[in-house]
């Protein structure tokens, strides 16, 4: 690919694509000081190194980026060359607005073909990995090339093609991310991250597939792994967390029992009551009475 | 047949075992809970999660046991990790998470106390070394850093006291766990006023002290129903994990000791007298009214070896953790004693006994061009075991030890127990019982039901594998390397401090 730069406010290549903020390729023939200062990304930024060797800070971590490596950062994460320097080599990038992926309620500006549940899983994965250096990702090179060609030649159906390619780019990144993090040596750490994610959103009706995907594993091996690590099946572990949180909330006098049931992910206060009583012998209301002497 | 249940509230998980009257395990269940590290040096657990997890696990085990139709559950006996602290308000509602033994936030408070003459006095009175692990120092930290929470605190509990409170409605702490708080006088078995004064709390803010065999707490009716356990089932207060592991190691006779290596590690002896260490380096906890458990804990047990294998082992071929461990041990066996001059100081998590230095760090020393992966594996293992020997040498100054029982999955691997025998020059016997802690709980429960007349008699029932004997030639090599190991540890002390300051500085930037 030759050097180019498409920008929203400059030229009309991106007119049909308000979600692509910028796309470009730069061939850097000599070390440029202050050409790539560390900045906080405001968009979802993907970089791909075509040749050369780049020394960058990615979300506070120093990474050496080599040809065929991809890097992305979520909005709010920092990226830039070490000391602002841009090293010798060729790099391609694309900046996207993926809010519509991450904000399910928003249909305006929706360009992606992902179903709601796919989008949700992808969102969880990106939330857990807010930036990453993904080494040797051959597919990205072809996708960049194809997007560029489509934008240049504008053949029939090019708008759909570009959006499909963007979906493909996101899938390639997410899949590599989950593969990279699935290594068994990191499981305890992943499990901790998963638990924190579950605790933050207990009201969501988690499925095992979603939980497995967010740590980058298939459902079967995930279930097996969770069982051997925690002694519980994934869904039992989740119920365990729900009752735990409900127990805590019941001790706060100002909360309504039905709200507690729904906030902790039970279908109804009846469902909550049955589950809670089976384990503790108390209905939630009795439990609250016993634990509040005010 | 009667059946005794042991509930172990461990560092990472609750383990529940059911024993028949012969001490055979007839049921087991476990459930993990999470440790949170919201900041460096912090280590916390969610008390409600521990309680709910315990209920789940216990309920499942009880229904499994009852479904066989063969057993009558006569008692539940509790054990827990030492040194945890949970503050609750006047309604018994937790004020945040429990702080675990591994939490080091009280570093500054520890340094301050150590400069005072009071430090030695408190150590001698309470048996607990002056260290951030101690609930005394945790309370002091709370007082100086979270004053509002400190003032709202109606009771300072251990995790086990909280769990027993949920089940029975009473605030109690057994004598063993109480003796690991830094707040109990181990000679008079009552709260140590001087420690309480220094912490700024009153005895009414602490649970009632009960003997480890106490069964005066009664299970609330609701839990009788939900768990399927009748009112006649005794709730035995139990002990700490460390004290039960020593009892379950069967070492009550003269000349015996245990080495436990789990994530963390400890070497312990049982005796009728407190062990007086000039350097304040050994703990003295209470087993019961007649016996003390003395020894030293290390932070750097199998957690160090797991760290090593995560960084350097080969995980590519979807290996299980056991396979990875086996491969590493096979490679370590290809190298001779002393790893051809490569030494490792294992202080990845700072260290408790015998140096009590939270700033200590890991060091590989003596690497040369001929060393390869195998030497590093060997040196890593030897470093962990050398540290146990440093604790052992202190104990050997006070007691003759001629046989040692080893517990824990790491140390019971044949290579490890052999190396340990060589390093100590003392035979090592692997405990046949799956969990020494729960075996201890069983022995106490069985004594309460008259199966044994005393704990001494109960401890004699423990069967051990035939001991692994030391190789004198290897011991001679290890004795020399261990001297160097101790010298290095000592010599690097100021450099550890310096490094601590440097990293604190760069954290701030």
Description of the structure:
- The complex is a heterodimer of chains A (294) and B (509).
- Chain A is α+β, with helices and mostly antiparallel strands.
- Chain A folds into 2 domains: 4-181, Jelly Rolls, CATH 2.60.120; 184-294, Arc Repressor Mutant, subunit A (Orthogonal Bundle).
- Chain A is 46% helix and 18% strand.
- Chain A is built from 11 helices and 10 strands.
- Chain A has helices at 99-102, 116-128, 138-153, 158-181, 187-200, 208-214, 219-230, 234-250, 257-263, 269-280, 284-291; strands at residues 4-7, 20-28, 39-40, 44-52, 54-58, 61-65, 70-73, 78-81, 89-96, 131-134.
- In chain A, the strands form 2 sheets. In chain A, strands 1-2-9-4-7-10 form a 6-stranded antiparallel beta sheet, with helices on one face.
- In chain A, strand 5 and strand 6 form a beta hairpin.
- In chain A, helix 3 packs antiparallel against helix 4 (158-181).
- Chain B is an alpha/beta fold and 509 residues long.
- Chain B is built from 18 helices and 22 strands.
- Chain B has a 6-stranded mixed beta sheet with strand order 17-18-16-15-21-22, with helices on both faces. A 5-stranded mixed beta sheet of chain B has the order 3-2-1-6-14, sandwiched between helices. Chain B has a 3-stranded antiparallel beta sheet with strand order 4-5-8.
- In chain B, strand 17 and strand 18 form a beta hairpin.
- In chain B, helix 2 (107-114) crosses helix 4 (135-145) and helix 14 (414-424) packs across helix 17 (472-491).
- The termini of chain B are far apart.
- Classes of the chains: A alpha+beta (294), B alpha/beta (509).
- The A-B interface holds A 183-186, 192, 195, 229-232, 236, 240-241, 243-245, 247-248, 251, 277-282, 286, 291-294 and B 13, 29-32, 34, 36, 46, 48-49, 51-53, 55-57, 59, 90-94, 220-227, 309-310, 313, 315, 318-321.
């Amino acid at each position: 690919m030759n050097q180019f730069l498409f920008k929203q406010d400059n030229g009309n290549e991106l007119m049909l694509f308000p979600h692509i903020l910028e796309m470009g390729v730069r061939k850097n023939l000599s070390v440029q000081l202050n050409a790539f200062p560390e900045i906080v990304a405001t968009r979802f930024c993907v970089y791909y190194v075509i040749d050369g060797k780049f020394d960058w800070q990615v979300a506070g971590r120093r990474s050496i980026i080599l040809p065929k490596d991809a890097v992305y950062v979520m909005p709010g994460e920092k990226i830039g060359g070490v000391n602002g320097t841009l090293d010798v080599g060729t790099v391609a990038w694309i900046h996207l607005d993926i809010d519509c992926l991450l904000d399910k309620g928003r249909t305006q500006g929706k360009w992606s073909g992902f179903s709601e549940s796919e989008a949700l899983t992808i969102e969880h994965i990106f939330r857990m990995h807010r930036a990453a250096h993904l080494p040797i990702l051959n597919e990205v090179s072809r996708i960049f090339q194809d997007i560029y060609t489509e934008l240049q030649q504008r053949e029939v159906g090019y708008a759909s093609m570009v959006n499909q390619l963007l979906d493909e780019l996101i899938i390639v990144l997410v899949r590599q991310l989950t593969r990279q993090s699935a290594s068994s040596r990191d499981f305890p750490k992943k499990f901790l991250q998963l638990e924190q994610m579950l605790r933050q959103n207990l009201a969501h009706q988690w499925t095992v597939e979603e939980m497995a995907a967010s740590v980058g594993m298939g459902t079967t091996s995930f279930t097996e792994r969770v069982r051997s690590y925690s002694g519980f099946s994934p869904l039992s572990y989740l119920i365990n967390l729900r009752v735990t949180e409900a127990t805590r909330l019941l001790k706060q006098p100002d909360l309504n029992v039905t709200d507690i049931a729904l906030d902790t992910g039970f279908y109804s206060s009846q469902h909550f009551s049955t589950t809670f009583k089976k384990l503790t012998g108390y209905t939630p209301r009795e439990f609250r009475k016993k634990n509040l002497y005010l | 047949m009667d059946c005794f249940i042991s509930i172990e509230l461990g560092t990472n998980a609750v383990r529940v075992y059911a024993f028949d009257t012969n001490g055979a395990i007839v049921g087991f269940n476990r459930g993990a809970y999470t440790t949170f590290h919201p900041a460096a040096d912090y280590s916390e657990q969610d008390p409600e999660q521990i309680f709910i997890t315990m209920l789940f696990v216990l309920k499942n085990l009880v229904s499994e046991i009852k479904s066989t139709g063969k057993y009558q559950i006569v008692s539940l006996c509790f054990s827990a990790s030492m040194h945890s602290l949970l503050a609750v308000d006047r309604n018994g509602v937790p004020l945040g998470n429990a702080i675990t033994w591994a939490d080091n936030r009280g570093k500054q408070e520890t340094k301050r106390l150590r400069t005072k003459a009071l430090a030695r006095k408190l150590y001698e009175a309470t048996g607990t070394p002056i260290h951030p692990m101690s609930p005394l120092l945790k309370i002091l930290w709370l007082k100086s850093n979270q004053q509002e929470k400190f003032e709202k605190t109606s009771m300072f509990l251990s995790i086990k006291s909280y769990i027993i409170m949920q089940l029975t409605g009473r605030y109690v702490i057994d004598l063993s766990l109480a003796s690991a708080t830094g707040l109990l006088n181990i000679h008079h078995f009552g709260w140590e006023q001087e420690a309480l004064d220094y912490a700024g709390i009153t005895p009414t803010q602490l649970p009632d002290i009960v003997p480890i065999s106490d069964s005066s707490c009664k299970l609330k009716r609701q839990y009788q129903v939900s768990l399927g356990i009748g009112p006649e089932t005794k709730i035995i207060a139990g002990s700490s994990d460390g004290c039960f592991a020593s009892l379950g190691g069967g070492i009550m006779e003269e000349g015996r000791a245990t080495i436990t290596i789990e994530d963390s590690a400890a070497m312990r002896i049982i005796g009728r007298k407190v062990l007086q260490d000039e350097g304040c380096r050994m703990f003295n906890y209470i087993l019961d009214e007649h016996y003390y458990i003395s020894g030293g804990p290390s932070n750097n047990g199998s957690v160090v070896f797991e760290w090593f294998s995560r960084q350097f082992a080969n995980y590519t071929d979807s290996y299980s953790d056991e396979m990875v461990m086996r491969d590493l041990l096979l490679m370590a066996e290809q190298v001779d004693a002393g790893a051809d001059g490569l030494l490792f100081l294992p202080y990845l998590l700072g260290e408790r006994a015998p140096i009590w230095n939270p700033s200590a760090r890991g060091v590989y020393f003596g690497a040369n061009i001929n060393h390869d992966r195998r030497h590093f594996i060997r040196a890593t293992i030897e470093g962990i075991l050398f540290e146990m020997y440093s604790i052992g040498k202190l104990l050997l100054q006070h007691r003759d030890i001629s046989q040692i029982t080893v517990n824990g999955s790491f140390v019971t691997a044949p290579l490890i127990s052999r190396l340990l025998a060589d390093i100590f020059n003392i035979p090592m016997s692997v405990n046949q019982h799956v969990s020494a802690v729960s075996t201890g709980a069983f022995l106490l429960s069985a004594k309460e039901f008259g199966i044994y007349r005393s704990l001494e008699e109960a401890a004699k029932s423990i069967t051990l594998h035939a001991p692994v004997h030391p190789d004198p030639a290897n011991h001679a090599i290890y004795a020399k390397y261990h001297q160097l190991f101790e010298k290095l540890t000592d010599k690097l002390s100021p450099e550890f401090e310096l490094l601590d300051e440097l990293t604190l500085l760069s954290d701030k930037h």
